[in-house]
Amino acid sequence: MERKNAWTTFTDAQVAELETLCKGYRDFLDNGKTERECTSYAVKEAEAHGYKNLNDLIAQGKKLKAGDKVYAASMNKTMVMFHIGKEGLSHGLNILGAHIDSPRIDVKQNPLYEDSEFVLLDTHYYGGVKKYQWVTLPLAIHGVVAKKDGTVIDVVIGEDENDPVVGISDILIHLSGEQMQKTAAKAIEGENLDVIIGNKPKAGEEKEAVKKAILDILKEKYGFEEEDFLSAELEIVPAGKARDFGLDRSMVIGYGQDDRVCAYTSLVAMLENEEIPERTSCCLLVDKEEIGSVGATSADSKFFENSVAELIALCEDYSDLKLRRALRNSKMLSSDVSAAYDPMFPSVFEKKNTAFFGHGIVFNKFTGSRGKSGSNDSNAEYVSEIRRIMDDAGVNFQTAELGKVDVGGGGTIAYISANYGMQVIDSGVAVLCMHAPWEITSKADVYEAKRCYKAFLKNA
Ligand code: MN
Ligand code: MN
């Protein structure tokens, strides 16, 4: 069962459309390096396309009807959009789900210290990272500092050309004899991922003079003090913009493409479907997937269910049964990235069931590890419906597993929505170097993802 290379199927007009989409995608990656930044971006786009804030509608007691567009956000880290369809909500929704958090280095609560006249931030990595990949790179600081008086300072340092960047050191090769004998997991350890942020002493100070100089900068330039780190969320991410990759510009390299590639294409599909849908369309962007979907802003929280309940209450008379029916009768593409075949590491893949760059959107009937542990196993009947929708719309797709059976694996948010009894399948874009500071995707796959999502919202 060979699948076609999508590039060979595109018309000139499609290639032009693909380039426009990927320009927007790179812009999204540049402006959405944290879950908060992605939520702000999506909310702004939603509002510009006529989506109204659910909380405002509740406050105004407005009733909703087919064609109305609604969004809700929680804690600035997760958001959901609804485009109300002609059928009642109890018939179910067509849902696109993706996550907007990515592996990174988080700043600890009490992070600031001086050692040998360097000032560093102590950190705690977030998600699955190969620690050795994060040293000797220009890094940026993104996030918020919430002060005791209730004000919240937005921080982005290291993205503007004129900004300084920060970074993590590694020992020179000349003195690495001992380090090079260690396993890759131990060569750089978690507590050694501290970020250097300064090296110049404050004039006239004797003790911790460099730290004092840094504290002056934090106060004067960014408006906060050392104690304010206690209530800050600062994320250390690779500094710099996403770029076209390859001499033929066929790919995109950028930070955080897991899973912002699915988040962005889902968002665009939602915004581009202007016609009133038959079934209500929905796009859900969640946080905390990379640490197991836990907490208030994750897929496992009640945020989505509560938002659907509020939606029913605004459309018709609410009942618990209607909510349960709406969820049970829903269909979902749970979108997360797939492992792309890497010719440098053929031994971890089983080629017949592997995602290849340029072969389109990837469907995983199941994910999980070894004996399908942690998997959502999508129903065969549902997979057949998805195949039909994709073939009818001429969308290039492929099917895959995450590596060889015994080699490893991974889970997604699919099983969480599946608990409602809805139809859910894992889908997404293949990524090379997943979870590395700089990840790579194929533009053809980005384009096919968006086409897939549009067809699904319309025809599922
Ligand atoms: Mn992911
Ligand atoms: Mn991931």
Features:
globular, nine-stranded mixed beta sheet, Aminopeptidase i, Domain 2, alpha/beta, 29% helix, Aminopeptidase, binds manganese (II) ion, 22 strands, 460 residues
Give a brief description.
The chain is an alpha/beta fold. It contains eleven helices and 22 strands. It has a nine-stranded mixed beta sheet, with helices on both faces.
Helix content: 25-40%
Output the CATH homologous superfamily of the largest domain: Zn peptidases
Placed side by side, the strands forming the largest sheet appear as: 1-2-3-13-4-14-20-16-18
Q: Which overall shape is indicated by the principal axes computed on the Cα atoms?
A: globular
> Quick one: CATH class of the largest domain?
Alpha Beta
| Chemical compounds bound to the protein | manganese (II) ion
Largest sheet: 9 strands, mixed
Unreliable stretches covering 5 or more consecutive residues:
none
Discrete helix count: 11
In percent terms, what proportion of residues is strand?
Answer: 15-25%
| Tally of individual domains | 2
Task: Tell me the number of strands.
Answer: 22
Structural class: alpha/beta
In CATH, the topology of the largest domain is named Aminopeptidase
Quickly give the CATH architecture of the largest domain.
Answer: 3-Layer(aba) Sandwich
Radius of gyration: 23 Å
Average pLDDT figure: 97
Measured between the Cα atoms of the first and last residue, the distance is 25 Å
